[in-house]
Every structure is written in structure tokens, then in C-alpha cells.
Amino acid sequence: MNFNKISFRVRYGETDQMGVVYHGNYAQYLEIGRVEWLRSLGISYKEMEENGIILPVISLNIHFKKSAVYDDLITVETKLKKKPGVKIEFDYTIYNEKKEVLVLANTVLAFLDSKTKRPIKCPDYILEKIGDEGAGRT
């Protein structure tokens, strides 16, 4: 599956004095989306790291459309943009209960060997889980 959704409520501690989500928290929301996307494929981020693979973010783009506020139920929709090589790229849409788009975002991460910190290609077991269809499947 190259598409995943996860929903959760905005917590008070994630907001500023106006009750609006602090902009820095959106990067964490995207991480939740990525980790759950991997989990939906049966891939544990923790096990990947235990096997010597790390996945640092090398690019992060966020376009803010509307504010999320305290107690909003928000959904992070995560899509694999294209079949991974040395890098893996995701597109995200974050929206509220009214289906209003709050954020459009994109991240690029690199597969690295945790010991050498050198780039490696996407592991075969991840490519197999993604399947021949590559990205764009919903």
C-alpha cells in the first residue's frame, strides 16, 4: 500500500496562546504519517534501525493553508511519491474534520548505513512490500 491515513486530536501542548498549532509541530505530524505508512506495509522503523538502516530527512517543504486548533481531529494522509532508490519521497495532506486542507507538504529522506553514514539503496524487502505498481496507488 502506497497510501495511508492516520487521525488524531491536537493536544493543548501543541498550540500557542491563541490555541493554534505551533508551526514546528507539523514536522512531527508528518513523521507520524511516515511511520504509520511504513507500519501499514508491515515494516517497523525500529527494526529497520536495528538492522543498520537510518532514514534522515534531507528535504522538508510545508505549505500552510489554514490553522489547526486545539482539539481538532486532524488527519495526515501520506502518499509515496515515487518508487524509492537511495531516497524516498512522500507527499502529505493534513486536513480537519470538515475536510478543509490545512497543510500540503513533501519530505525526502535518504537511506543511510547507520555505521558508515553513507547512502545505500532502498532495501529489497521494502521494495517488495511496495510492489511493482510503485507510487500513486490509492
TrEMBL record:
UniProt keyword Nucleotidyltransferase present: no
Pfam assignment, any one: 4HBT_2
UniProt keyword terms in alphabetical order: Hydrolase
Origin: domain of life: Bacteria
Alphabetized GO MF terms: fatty acyl-CoA hydrolase activity
CDD domains reported for this sequence: 4HBT
PANTHER family, A to Z: 4-HYDROXYBENZOYL-COA THIOESTERASE FAMILY MEMBER, NOVEL THIOESTERASE SUPERFAMILY DOMAIN AND SAPOSIN A-TYPE DOMAIN CONTAINING PROTEIN (0610012H03RIK)
Family: Belongs to the 4-hydroxybenzoyl-CoA thioesterase family.
Protein name: Acyl-CoA thioester hydrolase
Organism expressing this protein natively: Pseudozobellia thermophila
